[in-house]
Amino acid sequence: MKKTLLFIAAILMSVSVFAQTRATFISEHFDGTSAPAGWSVMGSGTSNWGISATQNAGGEANELVLVWSPQFNGTSRMVMPAVDLTGVSSVVVSFKHALDNYSGSHTLGIATSSDGGATWNDAWSQSYGSSSSWAVTQNISTADMGNSNVQFCLYYTGNSYNINNWYFDDIEIFSMENLDLALNSINMNSTMGAGNAEIAFTVQNKGVETINQFKMGYQINGEEPVEEVFDVTLASLATQQFTFTTPASFIPGSYNLAVSIMEVNGGYDNDPSNDYLEKTINVALGETNRKVMIEHFSSSTCGPCVNVNTTMGNLTNANPGKFTYTKYQMNWPGNGDPYYTEEGGVRRQFYGVNAVPNVCLEGTNLGATSVTQAQLDNAYNTPSFADVRGSFNVDGSNITVKVDFMSYYDMTIEKAFVTVNEKETHNNVGGNGETSFHHVFMKFLTSPSGDALNIPAGECQHFEWTQNMSSTHVEEMSDLEVSAWIQNISTHEVINSHFMYEYTDIHPYPVQNLAIEEGEGVLNLTWEAPEGGNAVAYNVYCNGVIIAENVTETNLNYACDYGYYVFTVEAMYENDMTSVKIVKDYNYIDHTTVAEVQEIVYNIYPNPTNGNITVYGEGINMVEVYNLCGQKVIAVEANSSNVNVNMSTLTTGVYMVRIVDVNGNATVNKVVKR
């Protein structure tokens, strides 16, 4: 607790000692749905700029976007509000951007004006000719510096037809302090598996002075901070990622991770406002295999779509069972595709798609390109922390769909999406030479903006729909498929997806009411049969490893030592159908000896440690070391007031040291192993 207070006090002290003096003239993150007040367009492309509910540039949604249509050939300027630069000889301009390129190269630049836009002085420019994303930080000085009415513009020069979209975010214009290290980000996934995790972060030198050393600290849920000094050579405006050598250890749950810059070059820097960040980390009960979600925007009047359709067809034919797919036909170019739907238009707007072909993989907009085998393999081999299963059947023009969405963490902000597609269509021919189209979207069963999910960790949420398809473009009711996926709307990340089991009245319902009770050296698992009652067997897993296959009873006794366990039960059905798993965790502890006596005080030195520790205190009978999964990793018998414990063989992380006195009473302390 003492070090926790010192951690917070250091931050407060830096704020009180150094008031912020760095001037920030422009700081825009485009959080609204329309252009910010005071921003305007000059030159060509006055209607080509807008706000997109995407985050392709690398910031958070929303972001500024320049689209190709209506076509222009010239220079288009997005002009920012005028700022007073009296006495300022130079400023720094930083922003993120991402180009979805169609063909050729294009010029992007920054210019300034102090006469209301009659004259523009170039400050920086660069040519771009490929689809990618970048972060730009430039120290600029033009003839306009020092004036009281200076405007900055972000400009594009070229033929807009040759771009699809250009995205921009996090535009900042500021003057530099002498010493200013900024904490830009905490580089950890917001959802992760249990175990040791490296704490990585990115800092940027926003000052003039080179940074040779800085001290960082991180805290989890306000516990004792981990501090580390980093020796570097970080030049002015340079950005670099670092990782604490001491990782954090997590068991399932929700955590607040705080990271702070504590010292720079042996003291405080001049701007403490950018020295501290927090992030919520959800640690899942387990993980499961992933089916890769592909959303594809195309059109039968689009010439370039033919090659992408062919390449995607070859890719998916070579990778059966690895993906889920939905293709939205658009109503442009030309006269458009007759199978366009307004619901598909909603997804187009969600991803900021303004040209076809356009492919999105796992919620990431890849632009006018196909998914590569390497990209598919990388996504497929990334574990997921949620799962989807379901089934459908057809009666005349009606389709009935049942879907179960399951999560290994408390899911509250994600949404469910379910589409009915036709595997192959032929009647949406529109002039590009193609006569058949695959995975063609017909109808959303959820809202096209998704349906809310509220799933406690280890449980599932069930949905059912019956939809008459006679008003859609379906050609054959015997040729349908149903795609279902879970997506984070704010980040666009697809959590997991699955095609539903086809043309069956059997739905793979999960088991119900999984429960765990303690026995002597054993945990007794019980569950109830699925709602449908037609499961043929069950598979049972412990900590991700199968411990019983094809169990026909609804109970299992598992012999085990004391520790932390996560059990999952999966229902098996005919024709190799499986349900989503139901999950429950249990911390199996020795209740006969865990009695914490707060009056007994023990000291442990050193802490953190690189190897050995010594425990000091009267009447020590036993010292035990546990990892954060509750497993005993060291036990040292003693009858002494100081006990040496060798932790050198343990991996870096956080451990619990349990000290038992001669009367059998115990107290627990935390130790960090570096």
Structure description:
- The chain is mainly beta and 674 residues long.
- The chain folds into five domains: 2-21 and 178-283, Immunoglobulins (Immunoglobulin-like, Sandwich), CATH 2.60.40; 24-174, Jelly Rolls; 292-499, Glutaredoxin, CATH 3.40.30.10; 512-588, Immunoglobulin-like (Sandwich), CATH 2.60.40; 603-673, Macroglobulin (MG2) domain (Immunoglobulin-like).
- 7% of the residues lie in helices and 50% in strands.
- The chain has four helices and 45 strands.
- The strands form eleven sheets. Strands 1, 3, 4, 6, 9 and 11 form a six-stranded antiparallel sheet that branches.
- Helix 2 (305-317) links the parallel strand 22 (292-298) and strand 23.
- It is flat, with a radius of gyration of 30 Å.
- The two termini are 20 Å apart.
Computed Rg? 30 Å
Low-confidence stretches: 1-6, 8-20, 594-598
CATH class of the largest domain: Alpha Beta
- Total E-strand runs: 45
* Class computed from helices, strands and strand pairing: mainly beta
Features:
674 residues, Glutaredoxin, 5 domains, 7% helix, mainly beta, Jelly Rolls, Immunoglobulin-like, flat, disordered N terminus, 4 helices
Record the SSE blueprint.
Elements (H helix, E strand, L loop, with lengths): L1 H16 L6 E5 L11 E4 L5 E4 L10 E5 L5 E7 L11 E11 L4 E8 L7 E8 L3 E9 L10 E9 L3 E12 L6 E6 L4 E2 L2 E3 L2 E6 L5 E10 L5 E9 L4 E5 L4 E3 L2 E12 L11 E8 L8 E7 L6 H13 L5 E7 L12 H10 L6 E4 L2 E4 L5 H8 L5 E10 L2 E10 L6 E12 L11 E8 L6 E2 L7 E9 L11 E9 L5 E6 L12 E8 L2 E7 L8 E6 L2 E7 L3 E5 L3 E10 L9 E7 L14 E3 L6 E15 L5 E15 L6 E9 L4 E8 L1
Parallel strand pairs: 13-21, 22-23
Antiparallel strand pairs: 1-11, 2-5, 3-4, 4-11, 5-10, 6-9, 6-11, 7-8, 7-10, 12-15, 14-19, 15-18, 16-17, 16-20, 20-21, 22-24, 24-25, 26-27, 27-31, 28-29, 28-30, 28-32, 32-33, 34-35, 35-38, 36-37, 36-39, 39-40, 41-42, 42-43, 42-44, 44-45
